[in-house]
From TrEMBL:
<protein>
    <submittedName>
        <fullName>Polyphosphate kinase 2 (PPK2)</fullName>
    </submittedName>
</protein>
<keyword id="KW-0418">Kinase</keyword>
<dbReference type="InterPro" id="IPR022488">
    <property type="entry name" value="PPK2-related"/>
</dbReference>
<dbReference type="InterPro" id="IPR022300">
    <property type="entry name" value="PPK2-rel_1"/>
</dbReference>
<keyword id="KW-0808">Transferase</keyword>
<dbReference type="GO" id="GO:0006797">
    <property type="term" value="P:polyphosphate metabolic process"/>
</dbReference>
<comment type="similarity">
    <text>Belongs to the polyphosphate kinase 2 (PPK2) family. Class I subfamily.</text>
</comment>
<feature type="domain" description="Polyphosphate kinase-2-related">
    <location>
        <begin position="28"/>
        <end position="253"/>
    </location>
</feature>
<dbReference type="InterPro" id="IPR027417">
    <property type="entry name" value="P-loop_NTPase"/>
</dbReference>
<dbReference type="Pfam" id="PF03976">
    <property type="entry name" value="PPK2"/>
</dbReference>
<dbReference type="InterPro" id="IPR016898">
    <property type="entry name" value="Polyphosphate_phosphotransfera"/>
</dbReference>
<dbReference type="GO" id="GO:0008976">
    <property type="term" value="F:polyphosphate kinase activity"/>
</dbReference>
Amino acid sequence: MPKPFTFDPGDKINLKDVAARPDVGHWDKESAAERMAENTAKSRDLAYRLYAENKQTLLLVLQGMDTAGKDGTIRHVTTGINPQSFQIAPFKQPSSEELDHDFLWRVHKAVPRRGNVGIFNRSQYEDVLIVRVHNLVPKSVWSTRYDRINDFEKLLTEGGVRIVKCFLHISKEEQRERLQARLDNPDKRWKFSKGDLAERKLWDDYQEAYEDALNKCNTKHAPWHIIPSDRKWYRNLIVSELLKDTLEDLDPQFPPSEEGLDGIVVE
């Protein structure tokens, strides 16, 4: 199976050395679609067991440059999961109330409940990414947040939350093509903003910020997975495999039934 790029804690991660469009071997869209169907079916059944067990939690964190495909990944890898046991939290510009608290306050509130599968569309890492690139707070402030993020993630894992962090890695050329495709398609122009072009000019700054986040917050309890994302179907395949494998590792079990049910006939 295709695998994400992973690094041991302490290893140096350099995004220029990680291919956004690697050799996919014998895989193509058709074979990937078949495998995706298998993965999502297994994840659906395991998520049902996770909900019934109500002891563990799975949190999938998705980060990436604009157009990396966070929304598309969510649509494809969560097919069939019962909405009752599924939570999605998008992190956009913080509200005035959120700004009146520490930067992790809004994140901790969104952590999925026991028994649930949760996805963060962007996450706590925005406060060492966009905040850093746009100088929204001084370096003396954002530079201390890596350790606090690591401590926060440690707190979650010790409380029964399994964290799967995925950086959706695309090339600058692929981003250009996707932005142009939005402009050229009337049905997708609503997704385009002139601000996207201004953000694109900061590509190198964002890459540097991401590298620091990947290196400083790649821990044993919450490692990073770098997902080659220039091919959307390949990206979806890898994330679906990660989700399925993690649920299998959690091995959720149905709780025992109430005693004395044998022989009962519902009239």
